[in-house]
Structures are given as C-alpha cells and as structure tokens.
Design a protein that fits this description.
Strand content of chain B: 5-15%
Number of helices of chain B: 14
Largest interface: A-B, 27 and 22 residues
Helix content of chain B: 40-55%
CATH architecture of the largest domain in chain A: 3-Layer(aba) Sandwich
Strand order of the largest sheet of chain A: 14-17-16-15-18-19
CATH superfamily of the largest domain in chain B: Type I PLP-dependent aspartate aminotransferase-like (Major domain)
Order of helices and strands of chain A: EHEEEHEHHEEEHEHHEEEEEEEEEE
Shape of chain B: globular
Structural class of chain B: alpha/beta
Distance between the termini of chain A: 41 Å
Radius of gyration of chain B: 21 Å
Order of helices and strands of chain B: HEHHEHEHEHEHEHEEHHEEHEHHEH
Largest sheet of chain B: 7 strands, mixed
CATH class of the largest domain in chain B: Alpha Beta
Number of strands of chain B: 12
Strand order of the largest sheet of chain B: 2-8-7-6-5-3-4
CATH architecture of the largest domain in chain B: 3-Layer(aba) Sandwich
Number of strands of chain A: 19
CATH topology of the largest domain in chain B: Aspartate Aminotransferase, domain 2
Strand content of chain A: 25-35%
Number of domains of chain B: 2
Number of helices of chain A: 7
Distance between the termini of chain B: 19 Å
CATH superfamily of the largest domain in chain A: HUPs
Helix content of chain A: 10-25%
Number of domains of chain A: 3
Oligomer: heterodimer
CATH class of the largest domain in chain A: Alpha Beta
Chain lengths: ~375, ~400
C-alpha cells in the first residue's frame, strides 16, 4: 500500500506521516504540502515557513515530499465564496469548503492519479468499519481536539481512500511522539482561525480589501425601534452577541437577522435569537440518507467546530420538482430551542446511538 | 518502476536528467580547474603578499580568458555571485538618479524575462515611480519588435531583453533589439540576460549590440554561486554592494576565486564543444519532440522550433496537470520541470506562457524537457516510454 500524506507543516500531520512511515516504510509514504494561498499569510508569503517545516520533517523521516499548487482552486472554491457569502449576509466556513473541494476532492483525485492507494491527513478524527463493512466517520479520541465537524461532509467514496493516523491519539500524545522523534514541529503552536487571514489584518481588514463594506442600522426586532448603527453590516453574523449591547431590561441583545440589501441588523433577546428549526441545504450523508421514506430521525446536531451537540429530529424534504440533484433540503427541529444559526453555517449530524459517529452534514439556509 | 524511496545507491545512475536549464552537472575540466584554489592557492586576491599575488594572477588570467571567449575586454567583466546578481546589477546599477528621482523616467523589458530581471524592474519602478513598459511576444515566443519600437521613447533609460528564454528556449533577436533601441531611445542601456544562451550560442554574435550581458556559471558546467556581468566601459554602473571597492568599484566583496576559475574553465570547455554538442543535442531534441507528438495524443510544442536553442523543449499535454506529470516522471526516474518554482517549491503559473496568450489551464499543462551535453539517445527513448505511460495514467 502506498499513501500520500497531506502535510500542513503542523505537528499533527507531521506525526501522521511518522506513524505511516513506521507502519509502511518510508518508501511507501509520500508527503504533499498544498500551496493554497498566494498572498501573504502569518507564516510568510505562500506560507513558505510551513512548507519548509513539512519538507524538513519529510527529510527527517526519509520520505519524498512534493508541493502542489492548488491556489487557483482555493481562490475559486474557498476564498471567493467566503467573500461573496459575507457580501450576501452569509457566514460560510472556509475550512469545511477547503476540505470538501481541495483536500478530499482535488488532492484525493491527485493522489489517485499518482497511483496512491490512500490519502492521509493529520485530522483528529477516526475512520472505523461497521459489521457490514461500511465506513464510519467518528470523533477523534481527544474530544477537546476532535475535528469530525469539519470532515462531516465526507461520504463512503472518500472515506474508503482516507486515513486519519492520529485520530486515536490525544493531542498531548501527538506532541510527545513528535518530541520523542525530534521532529521540528513538536512545539509548534496549533493553527488558529482562517489560514488566509493574517492576524494583523483580521476578518474586517481582509474582507474590506475585497468587498464594499456598508454601515447599517441596528433595529429592535420586537418594536422596530432604531437602536443606532453598525459600521459594516457585512461583518455581522446572526447569533452574534458582541457589540450588540444591552436592552432596556439590562439583558444582552443578540443578532436575530441580517439584511445586507436593506442595510439592517435586527437584534433581540436571547429567546428572540433562538429557534427550534433550521433548514439545511448541501446535505451530505456518510452512509446513505436515513430520512428517506422514514419518520423523523433522531440526531445530535452540532453547529460549530467545538460546540455542544444538541438533540434534534431531522426530516428530509422532498426534492422540488425539476430541481437538480443535491437540491434536497433537510429540516432540523431541535428538542430545545437553540441560538439561531447564521446562514452559511454548517451543521454536523451525529448518531444518538453512537454519539461519536457522524451521520451527515448540511449548510444552514 | 523505480520507487520514490529506493536506496540512493543505485538512484543516481538510474536517473535520466532532463532539467539542464535549471542547472547542469559540473564538467570535469571545471572541477579540476577549481581544486588548486580550494586549499593550496587559497589566497585572497586583494593583498600584498605572495599568496595574494598568486590568487590575483589566477583571477586576472581568468578574467582575460573569459573576456576573450566572449569577445569582450577584460575591464568589462564584473564577477558576481550568479545570474540573478548580474541581472540586478544591470537593471538597478544602470538606472542613474534612482534616489533623487533624476535621470531617465522609464525602463523597458520583455514580458517573458526571467524573474531576476522582471521582479527587479518592477521593484525599481515601484520604488522610484518610474514607468515600466512590458513588451509582449508573439505565439512563436519571440519579442514583438514593433511593440518594442513603440515602447522606446526618449525618456527610456534601460531596455532588457533576454537572449534565450529559460522556459521555452526561444531565441530573441538581441541585435535587432539594440538597433531599435539606439533609434528610439538613444540614452538607453541595452541589457540582455544571456544565462540560457551560453551552452548553445556564441555570445559575441548572439548578444552583439548589447551594452551589458549576464551569464551564470552553473548553466554550462560551472559551479553554482558564480556569474558575471559583462558591461561596456562607457556604461556607468552603480554598485549594489559597497565595501572594499573590488571589481573597479562595481562589485565589492572578496572574489570567489575557485568558482571564477571553474566557471571560466567550463566556458572554455563549452565553447570548444558547442558546435558538435549543439548538433547532437538538436537531433535528440527533435527525436524527443517528434516522438512525443507522434505517440502522445494532444501534445503541442510551444514556440517555433526554428526559433529555439537545441537544448530546450517545452510541450503542452492537453488535459494533464504538468505538476502531476513531473511527479510521475520523477518516480519513473526522469527529472523534468513544469515551470518556474516559487520560494515554497510550488510550481507557479507561468508568466511566459501567459505572455504567449495561453490560459491558466493550458499553461499548467506544460512540461520543460531540457537536454545537455551528457544527454543520450537512451535518455530520450526512456523518456518517450515514460511520458506516454504517465500521460495515459493522468488522463484516465
């Protein structure tokens, strides 16, 4: 078996590569670092420092290493939709779109074309098999570092060719192993936030260079009273609390809706900003759609990378006539009202009978 | 197929090296020439004792020899750390009044220059507010001389057009370029980056009319880290490096004597063998090009063959990612290149192919095979088989 391991230059993928080399021999493992972003980042132009770390770890492990330039596809599938989403009042998750389009599509395809049997990544997630031989996608052993949420869009086809070598390890064990092997990435801090946004620039600075930001009015959702203004309506997210102040009753206010076209941000109480129901599009299933011809299905729904999974029922809504495949929508009804989801936010669905197992995912409409 | 991680013992002998435009192995004459200056004659050429005198003598002998081989005068040779420094020195050093904003207001270069010229011109233009005029090329990969004539006005201080393009191998008409510049921009210095020309062309004739010529040792069997700018006496040159005033105040820094001696030995070796090597390599290149076009569907050669040096063959394989093809060929033991690499090692979209009018998709399907004096018929035959197999796999 030959494996291509995606190496970001971080400690997790370094150890993933090391484990594979130990298991298969370093002549059967090849490292690949993706050049995704052409602009400056926190680790220098084209993330040169990260590529160097990955290359030197590969050297140390005695494996071949390549750099693939996927900057065009990254711009098209991740950065452009991110910017466009904000312009239209949505909050897309760029890490999920990168996994969907770059790592588990372009790179997986490249791995196959180059004759590799599998692609490995340093994600904290586990791939297991059911008794029937079907693949399951499960949370990483280290619950605090679990990354199954950003992988929830994977299906059987991708999982069949994917390995997560550090999924059974805690982050501490990963760092220990890196230290034991003397890998230069052992003490490298975890990556934070969105990779193409520099910390000195922030989301506002990044988006401000790419789209026109407009001031907006802050309106009380219940009374319609004008409460003041916000600097950039494109930077406000549904469910947001920061910067929204307090109501007359002294309680915190939350964003309940954003209308970019009208330049209006609606705010209200925690209750007003909660909802029992959310509709999802771009629905994916790890192993088939359990809602097909079935009564509502019980799930645990998680709507952020490290959020709590809340009990909910999901119902498939039939594909509208004439709509393309994949236009199917999913209605999620939470047992208890949840903070309202921003359009564009991904919801990962887990199996209440096996709370570690991902069932599928969708994007809040 | 050779696995990527096979022990290095049999790796070198198994490999087919077709990336001579990136760098070449040193020729035996160059290795031999440099050895005495590593330990025995290690002196610093700038000094007042016997060790220095011997080093100085070797340096000036090398300079005389290089000048003779290039049809220049010894005083016109400025030794540098390589082609990139020579290009930087030519561009930045000849544009007078850079700090004061005086001097010529514009500079011109072709759109297919090496980044050592292109990025230097861009940086200079941004820093000093000068107008950088890029002249395009035709589909044949040769500079548009009418476009050049239009770009050449009185206020142009520098025109830089390479002798041979590094990605596609097309020869640029430097003599005609110089004539056009003299006519339209009488004050302008004409520079040519001749780094890729040395293995294949007699520089005196290929760069005739140019005021400044850059060369780089490792592209023709010399060592890395040494090159030269050959620049006419009448061209004022401001140094990039200040210090001891070496090279007639044009380039300070202790001379890389072993490198310089070896580069000149390599240049002599190249000059002696150039004609025979060129004819032989041209036949190999034609065999490779015709073989690829004949056996791999959707293969197109970039640039007119008659406008190119013998050693460089750039082809596009429709629907294939060049980046992936390089990996498969590497695993098959064949070293080729998919274009210029950026600092991270990623293959960058080619500004050369883009200047020729190719879209991103087509440009990224390109591979450069570059042959050298050590290339053999067996290399070509093995490459033909490997490319056909690899392209098939990638198109699957």
């Amino acid at each position: 078996m030959r494996v291509l391991v995606a190496m970001s230059g971080g400690v997790d993928s370094s150890v993933a590569a090391a484990l594979l080399c130990a298991r298969l021999g370093s002549d059967r493992v090849v490292g690949a670092t993706l050049k995704l972003w052409g602009g400056r980042s926190d680790s220098g132009c084209c993330s040169v420092a990260d590529v160097e770390d990955a290359r030197r770890v590969a050297d140390q492990l005695g494996m071949v290493h390549h750099v693939f330039n996927f900057a065009d596809a990254f711009e098209r599938n991740v950065v452009d939709p991110y910017v466009r989403g904000h312009a239209e009042g949505r909050t897309p998750n760029p890490c999920i779109e990168c996994n969907r389009h770059l790592k588990f599509d372009r790179l997986l395809g490249r791995a196959e074309a180059l004759g590799f049997d599998a692609l490995a990544t340093g994600h904290h997630a586990r791939r297991t098999r059911s008794a029937g031989g079907r693949y399951r996608l499960c949370r990483g052993r280290d619950q605090a570092k679990d990354q199954s949420y950003v992988l929830a869009m994977l299906g059987q086809d991708q999982l069949a060719r994917t390995l997560f070598p550090v999924g059974e390890m805690t982050k501490a064990a990963v760092r220990d192993e890196a230290g034991r092997l003397g890998l230069r990435t052992a003490d490298k801090p975890d990556s934070q936030d969105v990779c193409f946004i520099r910390s000195d620039q922030g989301r506002a600075g990044f988006l401000g260079e790419r789209l026109a930001l407009h001031p907006g009015r802050l309106v009380d959702e219940a009374t319609g009273v004008d409460l003041g203004s916000v600097r950039s309506v494109e930077l406000v997210t549904v469910g947001q609390r920061r910067g929204m102040g307090h109501g007359d009753d002294g309680r915190r206010r939350y964003v309940t809706a954003v209308d970019v076209a009208l330049g209006e941000v609606r705010v209200g109480t925690a209750e007003a900003a909660s909802s029992e129901r959310v509709e999802l599009h771009t629905v994916t299933w790890v192993d088939g759609d359990p809602t097909l011809g079935a009564p509502p299905v019980r799930v645990l729904a998680q709507s952020s990378a490290h959020g709590r999974a809340a009990a909910a029922m999901v119902t498939g809504s039939s594909t509208p006539e004439g709509a393309p495949t994949g236009a199917a929508r999913l209605v999620v009804c939470f047992v208890e009202p949840q903070r309202r989801l921003a359009p564009g936010q991904t919801v990962a669905l887990y199996d209440p009978h096996r709370p570690d197992c991902v069932l599928g995912s969708g994007i809040a409409a | 197929m050779t696995g990527p991680g096979q022990s290095s013992g049999d790796r070198a002998s198994d490999r087919v090296y077709l990336d001579h435009a990136a760098t070449t192995p040193m020729c035996a004459a160059a290795v031999e020439a440099m050895l005495p200056y590593l330990v025995d004659d290690f002196g610093n050429p700038s000094g007042a004792h016997e060790e220095s005198r011997r080093a100085r003598r070797a340096l000036e002998d090398a300079r005389d020899h290089l000048a003779a081989l290039l049809g220049a005068r010894p005083g016109e040779v400025v030794f540098t750390s390589g082609g990139t420094e020579a290009d930087n020195l030519a561009v930045t050093g000849t544009m007078a009044g850079e700090d004061t904003g005086d001097g010529p207001a514009a500079l011109v270069c072709s759109a297919i220059e090496h980044h050592a010229v292109l990025a230097t011109c861009e940086a200079l233009a941004i820093r000093s507010g000068r107008d950088l005029r890029l002249v395009g090329v035709g589909k044949d990969g040769v500079i548009d001389l009418d476009g050049l004539a239009r770009a050449c006005s009185e206020e142009v201080g520098l025109v830089s057009v390479m002798t041979v393009n590094n990605e596609i191998g097309t020869i640029q008409p430097v003599g005609e370029v110089a004539d056009i510049v003299r006519n339209g921009s009488p004050r302008a210095v004409v520079h040519t980056d001749a780094v890729q020309a040395v293995p294949w062309m007699d520089l005196a004739s290929a760069t005739g009319g140019a005021d400044a010529v850059s060369i780089s040792g490792h592209k023709f069997g010399g060592p890395k880290g040494v090159g030269a700018l050959v620049v006419k006496d009448r061209v004022p040159l401001r140094p990039l490096f200040h210090g001891g005033g070496h090279e007639r105040e044009r380039r300070s820094g202790t001379h890389n004597l072993p490198g310089i001696v070896a580069m000149v030995a390599a240049l002599e070796w190249t000059s002696v063998h150039r004609e025979v090597t060129g004819r032989r390599v041209e036949q190999l290149r034609d065999r490779l090009a015709d073989g690829l076009i004949g056996s791999v569907a959707g293969t197109v050669e970039t640039g007119e063959r008659r406008c190119r040096v013998p050693g460089i063959l750039h082809v596009r394989f429709a629907g294939v990612a060049g980046e992936a093809l390089v990996v498969l060929l590497d695993e098959a033991g064949i070293a080729v290149s998919a274009g210029a690499a950026c600092a991270s090692g990623a293959v960058e979209p080619s500004h050369v192919l883009s200047a020729l009018g190719f879209g991103a998709e087509e440009a990224s399907s390109g591979i450069r095979f570059s042959l050298g004096p050590t290339s053999t018929e067996a290399d070509v035959e093995r490459t033909l088989v490997a490319v056909a197999g690899a392209v098939d796999r990638l198109r699957d």
